[in-house]
Amino acid sequence: MFGMSHMPKAILLIVVLNSSLFSQLNAQIQQLEFEKEVICVILNKGSYIIGELKNETNHDLEFVMPGGDNLFIQRKDIKKIRRTSEGYSFTKRGRFNFDKGLYCSWHPFVIFYGESYFRGNRGFTGLGTQLSVGRHHNRRLSYGLTAAYFETDNYYDRLDFGYWFTAAPIAAFINFNLNLRGPRLYCTAKLGNAFKIDRGWFKDIHSGLYGAMGLGIVFPTRSLSRFTMELENVFIKSAGLTGPRFIFEEENFVPEPFSTYAKYITLKLGVSFRQ
């Protein structure tokens, strides 16, 4: 009976001790993870060394090489130090990706492929340019705003109507990295509005909702800039009144209202900074 009466207290004591030990172990693991930092040391002579930082003073650095050997380097021989705590993620040969902070990307060449002006033949339909400003939320996720300018054409088969238009989309975007090492492949999604710019023949056509989904890739370098490209499915709301495609059709042409989503595949080539 004595043992049975003290059983709940014993169980409670075991739970408390286990909880305390687990809390201490978890704190130690978190401390080790926090203290573990990988650095890339760029020497005055131009070479670089990547390893796990073990200790640093005002005079030298001690870090562990990938093979497990300890290495000491004097600060007077160091040109620059990049650290994982500063948002760098290192790949092969001293190249790196960014995990923190703001970034900017510019795609001066945006190539449109879709239903062309001449009776829906699929092919090259237009060109554009796009500028994006984003923020790294963490190693996987980033988000921001993008603005573009493009001239392209489309074909509306229900009315046998081909047209071209000029627009300037402004949208929010979100990117998700599919991998963390080497060239980063990411999924991207954009949603916003395409503002019409009156140019050329079809002034009664207005653009509207703009969206895109696709894949992108960023190639790591040893500098702030790097090459980037995206392949996307794009849709743009188009509505208004039909118009003649040729001058000689203008006199007898009767305009009709229409509304459709112009759909394209776009290939974007450009450069980014801190992406």
Description of the molecule:
The chain has 275 residues and is mainly beta. It has two domains: 37-86, SH3 type barrels (Roll); 101-273, Porin. It contains one helix and 15 strands, in the order H-E-E-E-E-E-E-E-E-E-E-E-E-E-E-E. An eight-stranded antiparallel beta barrel has the order 8-9-10-11-12-13-14-15. Strand 6 and strand 7 form a beta hairpin. The protein is rod-shaped and about 85 Å long.
Q: How many whole angstroms does the radius of gyration measure?
A: 29 Å
SS class: mainly beta
Instruction: Work out the strand percent.
Output: over 45%
Strand adjacency order, main sheet: 8-9-10-11-12-13-14-15
Distance between the termini: 69 Å
Number of strands: 15
- The CATH class assignment of the largest domain is Mainly Beta
Number of helices in the DSSP assignment: 1
Keywords:
275 residues, mainly beta, Porin, 8-stranded antiparallel beta barrel, 15 strands
Gist of the model:
By secondary structure, this protein is mainly beta. The protein folds into two domains: 37-86, SH3 type barrels (Roll), CATH 2.30.30.100; 101-273, Porin, CATH 2.40.160. 12% of the residues lie in helices and 59% in strands.
Topology:
Layout: H1 2-35, E1 37-43, E2 48-56, E3 60-64, E4 70-74, E5 78-83, E6 88-90, E7 96-98, E8 101-115, E9 122-136, E10 141-156, E11 161-177, E12 184-197, E13 205-218, E14 225-241, E15 257-273
Antiparallel strand pairs: 1-2, 1-5, 2-3, 3-4, 6-7, 8-9, 8-15, 9-10, 10-11, 11-12, 12-13, 13-14, 14-15
